[in-house]
Amino acid sequence: MSKKENDRSQKGNKGDNNSKISKNVLIKNVDLVFKRTDDTKKYNEFYLKELEKYVEEYLKKSITKTQMRNIFETFKSCKSNDEMKLLKPKLMYFAGRINNNNTKLFMKQLIELIDKMEDENDYKHMQKLVESTLAYHKYYAEK
Q1: Which structural domain range is residue 87 located in?
Q2: Residue 114 CB neighbours (<10 A)
Q3: How many Å apart are CA 89 and CA 66, to the nearest integer?
Q4: Is residue 88 part of a domain?
Q5: Residue 131 falls inside a structural domain
Q6: Based on the structure, what is the number of domains in the chain?
Q7: Residue 2: inside a domain
Q8: How far, in Å, CA of 110 to CA of 87, rounded?
Q9: d(Cα 97, Cα 110) in Å, to the nearest integer?
Q10: What is the pTM of this model?
Q11: CA torsion 85→44→40→107, rounded to 10°?
Q12: Tens-digit pLDDT profile for the chain (143 aa)?
């Protein structure tokens, strides 16, 4: 088996867990996204398992690598909480141009999370969330 075939085989085996992850996983876990809880186990579970499964199930085929990278670059360019809050109209415009429901829901959740940001610490966690999502997407997306 070639390395490429082996990698694809491993990708396929990663999602063997039959439990479905909620499409609203980001909004349902606001406290974990912004690390407003001291429960390290739940925080790690969210970032290392739930977020990965969310990307694998709902985003890998619904958003292109280029679109995901553009979202990441938009978030990465922000230098403060206030700058990130100003992304809301840009994200709404982007969501309005998308025809895929999973991608629209993802964008809606990012917008809702921006609305729930309270301080500079939250802005750093939003960047971490988008960076983690990009990493999982890069792994699972086929094109």
Answers
A1: 23-140
A2: 19
A3: 20
A4: yes
A5: yes
A6: 1
A7: no
A8: 10
A9: 16
A10: 0.82
A11: 20
A12: 444 444 444 444 444 445 688 999 999 999 999 999 899 999 999 999 999 999 999 999 999 999 999 999 999 999 999 999 999 999 999 989 888 999 999 999 999 999 999 999 999 999 999 999 999 999 999 86
DSSP letter for 117, please: -
Nearest to 75 by CA among 118, 41, 107: 107
In a domain, 18, yes or no: no
DSSP readout, 12-63?
Answer: HHHT---PPPPTTHHHHTHHHHTT-S--HHHHHHIIIIIHHHHIIIIITTTS
Tokens coding 119: 């301080």
How many residues are there in the chain? 143
What pLDDT score was predicted for residue 98? 87
The residue with tokens 């990663």 is 14
Residue 21: which region, alpha, beta or left (left: phi > 0; alpha: psi -120 to 50)?
A: beta
Only one residue has tokens 């990012």, namely 110
